[in-house]
Specification:
Blueprint: E1 11-19, E2 23-30, E3 36-43, H1 44-50, H2 53-65, E4 74-79, E5 83-89, E6 94-95, H3 96-103, H4 108-127, E7 130-131, E8 140-142, E9 148-150, E10 157-158, H5 161-167, H6 175-201, H7 211-220, H8 233-242, H9 253-257, H10 260-265
Antiparallel strand pairs: 1-2, 2-3, 3-5, 4-5, 6-8, 7-10, 8-9
Helix pairs in contact: 4-6, 6-8
The protein binds the ligand Cc1cc(Nc2nc(/C=C/c3ccccc3)nc3cc(N4CCN(C)CC4)ccc23)n[nH]1.
The ligand Cc1cc(Nc2nc(/C=C/c3ccccc3)nc3cc(N4CCN(C)CC4)ccc23)n[nH]1 binds next to strand 1, strand 5 and strand 6.
Length: 275
């Protein structure tokens, strides 16, 4: 349970799994229960240096409050004089990114299953007023059954909609505020379009030699579909209805779940059946 007080002596530290910007992640085992976890270790001086206290606190509050089969669990945390330790769910399958590199691109069934999992997870996050804002293959892990897990809520935000509902009415909000609020949520929908394209073609749609070229292609929504690999019309239709500049015109998460390509290709096993 995440209520009890943990400390380093409760864990045996195993191999390093990876090194993020602010901390390293290790395989670890809780001594008494032999429960396997991933331990994310962040040095407090890094927090000072990069001024990311609030971001880490937000990540911890958000991830502790989320309970969804496609969202990596934060079981608890503790700290000592110089480090903060996050006790995270261990995803046995590793990084989805490596799977994508290994296979080049995914089958339509596999891609649709991952997109459906991501969509249900994001729908859950959005109803909890959480916008991830940084969904990319590097932040996606796989469990022992190949089920997708969204990790790393470091960049997510508690959306302002809570404040709107607290003040009760949008009547007094200027259009840009209301539009902006809508816009916040829709960033994740755009990213689903990017990921769907990358899962099917092996590279993101606006990839370019330079950052400025990529920026130009994004702003123009300069989307084109290569002739190989051969991708179904339905998949291209879904991608085209997500990669829309006007955020209010992007397909909603609900509509993604009802899209013919998802209904036809997503494997229900990979998608948590809603109770
Ligand atoms: C938080 C967490 C990680 C995690 N599991 C794993 N993380 C990372 C790489 C992690 C990482 C962390 C920080 C920065 C970069 C990478 N690599 C992993 C590699 C794994 N394997 C076992 C499966 N093999 C096919 C590939 C290598 C298994 C789990 C992994 N569960 N929970």
């Amino acid at each position: 349970n995440s209520e009890r007080k943990w400390s380093l002596k409760d864990f045996e530290i195993g191999k390093p799994l990876g090194k993020g910007k602010f901390g390293r992640v290790y395989l670890a085992r809780e001594v008494k229960s032999k429960f396997i976890v991933a331990l994310k270790i962040i040095f407090k001086e890094q927090l000072e240096k990069y001024k990311i206290h609030h971001q880490l606190r937000r990540e911890m509050e958000i991830q502790t409050s989320l309970r969804h089969p496609n969202v990596l669990r934060l079981h608890g945390w503790f700290h000592d004089s110089e480090r903060i330790f996050l006790i995270l769910e261990y995803a046995y399958g590793g990084e989805l990114y490596n799977e994508l590199r290994k296979h080049g691109h995914f089958s339509e069934e596999q891609a649709a299953t991952y997109i459906a999992s991501l969509t249900t997870a994001l729908a859950y996050c959005h109803e909890k007023h959480v916008i991830h804002r940084d969904i990319k293959p590097e932040n996606l892990l796989l469990d022992h059954e190949g089920r997708l897990k969204i990790a790393d809520f470091g960049w997510s935000v508690q959306s302002r909609s809570k404040r709107h509902t607290m003040c009760g009415t949008l009547d007094y909000l200027a259009p840009e505020m209301v539009e902006n609020q809508a816009h916040d949520y829709a960033v994740d929908n755009w990213t689903l379009g990017i990921l769907c394209y990358e899962f099917l073609y092996g590279a993101p749609p606006f990839e370019s030699e330079s950052q400025s070229d990529t920026f130009k292609r994004i702003m123009k929504v300069d989307l084109s579909f290569p002739s190989t690999p051969n991708v179904s019309m339905e998949a291209k239709n879904l991608i085209s209805r997500l990669l829309v500049k006007d955020s209010s015109k992007r397909l909603s998460l609900q509509k993604i779940m009802e899209h013919p390509w998802i209904l036809k290709n997503a494997n229900p096993k990979g998608v948590e059946v809603q109770p």
